[in-house]
Amino acid sequence: MIIFLQLIDIELWFIVNEGPYGASIEDENTHRSRPKIRNELTTENRTHLTLNAKVMNVLFSALVSNKSIRVKGCKSAKEIWDKLREIHEGSENVREQ
What we know:
- The protein has six helices and two strands, in the order H-H-E-E-H-H-H-H.
- By secondary structure, the protein is mostly helical.
- The chain has helices spanning 2-8, 10-18, 43-62, 65-71, 77-89, 92-96, and strands spanning 24-26, 33-35.
- The protein has a two-stranded antiparallel sheet with strand order 1-2.
- The two termini are 26 Å apart.
- Helix 2 (10-18) packs across helix 5 (77-89).
């Protein structure tokens, strides 16, 4: 799957590996991270969000239904990838043993 994503667009793998970056901002009042609203998004943010949506579509399309149910609530390609990795390889604690 890694090679397939890289073949489509190397940026897709970066999104899976690193996550969709830059789409949040610190709220001035609460000092907590929040998603940017539409007029706060930069061109780069929009590109990363589009790439994230593309790779999520690729991942969902490649999954059989019993696996897709397990990642249905994920909000990013990285989150899907990490969940699938945990399903197939176990948690980090299990892998270290």
